UniProtKB/TrEMBL annotation:
Signal sequence segment: 1-28
Superkingdom as given in the UniProt entry: Bacteria
Keywords: Hydrolase, Signal
Protein name in UniProt: Peptidase S13
Protein species of origin: Desulfosarcina ovata subsp. sediminis
């Protein structure tokens, strides 16, 4: 009888062990790939980092610190551009108006077109040449934007990422130059180097580069006016007077031409994301505020639209957004919030730069590296990922390698 009890107890133990082993085997068959994936990502993440990966159906595959508010850097541009695409529409076109007054002055009224570049100004000048052979003064009207535009996080350096915003800006308020045989020349074939900018270039101590010349509103207008004058002369339109700021009088001035940009908003967004252009991002913010709330454009009006979309349309209650480009360290967004943005970005995902299987936007500030976007699966479906590294010394490379390898299995 004792042996029977002993055998029974041993059998019970063996049965329990077998059951535990079977359960473990079943769990291992179902979850280890994702469980191991999460463990690998957790090891790679620092204390001030966040990672979030989701399946095409929205199911969370991996999450690390996903509700921690972090500095997004330039991946914030995904929120800005999504808001604009939804509020203004992908077919929205920026405009610029051209008037003649009773003294034959040509008045140019800007509405924040971020792509008024040399090629475009040349095209505009050639069309104006078919309408008028000569004008007196060039009068530049930038009243669509408020007089004082202060972008949080933007500095006053001559670096292009610090280019200021305005209603009438050309070439992103920047100029490219080089010194050739002791003479300053333009580093862009299509753009002249205006004599007025050479003294500033000469003080920089460099022989080649691209800088912003528009340190303030008047300098921006002067530079824009100089380029318009140059291209008008090239097209055969004589400018007999001066270039000066002024205002359009809608009651007495005659609208000669309403120019609408060749580029639709989705084209502009594609360029913005491709070059991570802070100037374009904040131009969009300002124009969006003026169009949705009313002119003149201000940062507060733009943020009113941006934050409204973030809170109401997307239903995100966390974080803080203080500008549109991601240049400010005061911005705070969670990985979960970024995932929600990506979910709504899917119809526009082909506007995001692509490399290999990834459609992604990166962000870079000192001590901050971020990446967010889509990973194309073997079946063509889009997986979403957010990687935010705010731990000094960390970057997104190892995490992205782990994510790509996981989906190759």
């Amino acid at each position: 009888m004792g042996k029977m009890k002993q055998y029974g107890a041993r059998w019970a133990c063996l049965s329990m062990a077998a059951a535990i082993l079977a359960a473990a085997t079943s769990w291992a068959a179902e979850t280890p790939p994702e469980a191991d994936f999460v463990r690998r990502l957790s090891v790679l993440a620092g204390p001030r980092d966040a990672i979030l990966v989701a399946a095409p159906d929205g199911r969370i595959i991996a999450a690390v610190h996903e509700d921690r508010p972090l500095v997004p850097a330039s991946i914030l541009k995904l929120l800005t551009t999504l808001t604009a695409l939804e509020k203004l529409g992908p077919d929205y076109r920026f405009r610029t108006e051209f008037y003649l007054d009773s003294h034959n002055n040509l008045k140019i009224k800007g509405y924040g077109d971020p792509l008024l570049v040399s090629e475009t100004i040349g095209k505009i000048a050639r069309h104006l040449a078919t309408l008028v052979p000569a004008v007196h003064d060039l009068v530049l009207d930038d009243a669509f934007f408020a007089k004082s535009i202060c972008i949080p996080g933007r500095g006053t350096s001559t670096q292009p990422y610090d280019a200021p915003n305005g209603a009438l800006c050309v070439n992103f308020n920047t100029v490219a130059f080089r010194k050739e045989n002791g003479v300053w020349v333009s580093d862009e074939r299509q753009t002249p180097l205006l004599p007025s900018v050479i003294p500033k270039i000469a003080t920089l101590g460099i022989t080649r580069g691209r800088i912003t010349l528009a340190a303030d509103r008047s300098e921006a207008l002067h530079y824009a006016g100089g380029l318009f004058r140059y291209f008008l002369n090239q097209a055969g339109v004589r400018v007999t007077g001066t270039v000066r700021p002024g205002r359009v009088d809608p009651e007495s001035d005659v609208l000669m031409w309403l120019y609408r940009s060749d580029a639709t908003l989705d084209n502009v967004v594609s360029e913005l994301l491709r070059f991570s252009n802070n100037f374009i991002a904040n131009q969009i913010l300002l124009v969006m505020g003026a169009e949705m709330v009313g002119p003149p454009a201000t940062v507060d009006k733009g943020l009113q639209v941006l934050r409204g979309f973030y809170r109401v349309d997307l239903g995100i209650e966390t974080g803080r957004v203080v500008e549109a480009s991601g240049i400010s360290r005061e911005n705070r967004v969670t990985a979960r919030a970024m995932l929600k943005i990506l979910q709504n970005y899917e119809p526009y995902h082909d506007l995001i730069p692509r490399k290999g299987r990834q459609f992604y936007k990166t962000g870079h500030l000192k001590g901050v590296r971020t990446r967010a976007g889509f990973l194309s699966g073997t079946d063509g479906e889009l997986y979403r990922f957010v990687v935010m590294c705010n731990t000094p010394g960390k970057n997104t490379n190892a995490v992205m390698t782990a994510i790509e390898r996981h989906f190759e299995q």
